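sorry for the late reply, my laptop died twice this morning and i had to redo everyting from scratch. anyway the thing you sent over, i finally got around to it. pasting the sequence first so we're on the same page, its 99 residues, then the predicted structure underneath. double check i copied it right bc i was rushing
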Amino acid sequence: MFILGNLLQATAQILNIILQIYMWVIIIRALLSWVNPDPYNPIVQFLYSITEPVLHRIRQLVPMSGIGIDFSPIIVLLAIVFLQGFLVESLAALGARLQ
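ok and here's the structure:
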């Protein structure tokens, strides 16, 4: 059973790293929206291509027309924090119990 425990703990660590990186990508995307970057820049295109599917889905679920402020990055950041606190911690604790 220790192998399954180690697998779950490693999965939790990798998931935590991926979520942390995506959190920073969302933050950078939100900061870039304040300065109106060049849309033809490859870095900007990459950031938009990996964040827009998630942000667009949130915008569809939580319509915020008329407000003038896009709260979708904040909602995604809160979801990431929830996943880190619930899913990652649960996987790590389950893995520790199986060792």
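The two ends are 6 Å apart (CA to CA).
thats about all i looked at so far, will dig more tmrw
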